[in-house]
Amino acid sequence: MSTLKKQNQSLTKSWALGAAGIVFAVFLWWIFTRAATGNLMLAAFAPANVPDALKSLLGRGVLLSDVGISLLRLLSGLGLATVLGVPLGLVIGFSRLVEQTSAPLVQFLRMVSPLSWAPIAVALFGVGSLPVIFLVAIAAIWPITLGTVSGVRALNPAYLQVARTLGASGPEQLRSVVLPSIRPFVLSGIRLALGIGWVIIVPAEMLGVSSGLGYEILNARDRLAYDEMLVVILVIGVLGIALDTLAQKLLK
């Protein structure tokens, strides 16, 4: 009971400190916008404008649909990266020859900003959701691939030897030994890829699409609706926290 009480107290303290940090940040935000009364753009970013701007976005029915579209693109790109990244990581992890051969290319590709591929994505897929999904996948594939490689490297060879001794085939070894053993590494890579993909999707949605949170930021800017642009930015941040929290709970 004492241990449980200490855990509850620690959790309460953590929440209280987090809330205090948010209150302090909002206070600094209010001070900054109050000091910038001569600048119409910065004045529009005042905290007091958030409720009306949020009401306007919800009233026009664009915010929730944009959230749904962005999440769908994110999950599609993440799913594609997982489908490609896990097998690639398995091949690299189990084959020293493949690892040595592919290492320079992998290092090169993962160091190139995913947004650098935007012109190629548009040329290949045109405008719409496909280029956005492609860019998210390009950004997300490397954490998943490298996480899988790390899992393979950490796999105890004795487990595979026992499976072979018991007559397990290659697919059976993969299913019953390899995948369960590397699961924590793969899930950690997916969680990291989720955060990277969420960061990438906003600028990716500024490439000729007519929906999504990234598009909504550009649309608000073009209409000089800076208060609505601020609301979209806040929504992006809150959703990012929610996605990471959900990933912590599910990807264990």
TrEMBL record:
Pfam families: BPD_transp_1
Membrane topology category: Multi-pass membrane protein
CDD domains the UniProt entry points to: TM_PBP2 (cd06261)
SUPFAM superfamilies linked: MetI-like
Alphabetized InterPro entries for the sequence: MetI-like, MetI-like_sf
Residues annotated as domain ABC transmembrane type-1: 67-247
Entry's transmembrane regions: 12-32, 71-94, 115-142, 185-204, 224-243
Subcellular localization, as worded in the UniProt entry: Cell membrane
Family according to the record: Belongs to the binding-protein-dependent transport system permease family.
Identification of the protein by name: ABC transporter permease
Keywords: Cell membrane, Membrane, Transmembrane, Transmembrane helix, Transport
